[in-house]
Structures are given as C-alpha cells and as structure tokens.
Amino acid sequence: MGVPHDILRVPMPPGEDEPRLPNEPPHIYVLRTAREKAVRAVQWVEAVGATALPADGDALDGSRPILSADTTVILDDDILGKPLNAEDAYSMLRRLSGRRHEVRTAVVLAHAGELHEAVSITEVHFKALTESEIAAYCATGEPMGKAGAYGIQGKAGMFVEHIAGSYTGVMGLPVYETGRLLGAIGGRAA
After folding, report:
1. Contact 183, 61 (CB under 8 A)
2. CB count in 10 Å sphere of residue 67
3. Residue 8 falls within a domain, yes or no?
4. Residue 63, CA atoms < 13 Å, CB-side half-sphere
C-alpha cells in the first residue's frame, strides 16, 4: 500500500489464543478479537513508551495509529481457526472440500483514543479435494498458523474455484478497507 509502518510484537496474553466466547456468533467473534488486539497494542505502547524502538528508530509515543486485524473462516456457523496440528488441518480441509465458506477479516485502526473498524466478507468456494491433495498440502506445513488451515496466497490457491469478495481479505489484510480506514484519519494509502 506504500504506507510506512513498523510491526509491533505485542506479547500475547496467557491462555488460549483468541478464544471464542460461549454462544458467540462468528461475525461478533472476528470483530471482538481484532478490537482486543488493537486495545492490547495501545496498552502495550502506553506501558513501554519510549523504551521500545521499532525498526526505523522512532520512539513509540502513542501518537501513531495502530492497525490490527483478525481473519476467521466460517463454515456452517463454525469458526475454523488455526489448526492445532496436522490432523486438525486435515480435518478442516476435508470439511471445506467441495463447499462454499465465508472468510471475514476485521480491521481495527486505533488512533487518538478512538477505534475505527471495518470488516471484509468474502465467499470462497473450494473444489472437491482428494485425500492425496489434502495430505500433500498438509505435508507442506503451510496450513499451520492459518485460519481454516489454508493460505489462499500459497499452494491452497489451487483449491479455490471461485471467490466473491476480497482476495486480500482472505489473505488476512483487506487492502480496500485498510486504505479507507487510513484515509478517514488523514493517513495516506498510495
């Protein structure tokens, strides 16, 4: 996008990574987790202040916007998060095989004490996958750490018959929505 930025490595809270609350609908979950990431980052910057220096050497003073995002794969109202292991990844991919699912990516921009939010919604249709295709993909290790056990920008791109929505949203940072949020606070997106 041509926007100068730094990556904050905010410590994760103890416990389960991005837990879903009881009876929490997927569309609420994805926005809540993105918000929590933004708030946690703001609090961390306020706590460490000038002691943490990003790559460009500028001190963190809280005046710079903080962007967070969370991506969720939804199938039959179930959230398919990051797989726990190869078997979990295999199971998720088997469920996605030959079916349509929804990918929601929530983007939250924290700036000047306010949170600005946007959500990208994309429908993805996978071709019917063979057992050997699933096994070969899982063997690459690519499914690990990815919602729904796949990365559309990688080898799993071969599984996608059709998308309706945002390719970059499925990747994890919807460029259109992010640019709109930056523009709303006077930031620039090239």
Report:
1. no
2. 22
3. no
4. 4
Catalytically active residues are: 70
Beta strands in the chain (DSSP E): 66-75, 78-80, 100-111, 114-126, 160-164
Diameter of the chain by CA atoms? 53
- Per-residue model confidence as pLDDT tens digits over 7-47: 888 888 776 677 888 899 999 999 999 999 999 999 988 88
Name the domain count of the chain.
1
pTM, two decimals, is 0.89
Paired tokens of 46: 């306020």
The CATH number given to whatever domain includes residue 96 is 3.90.950.10
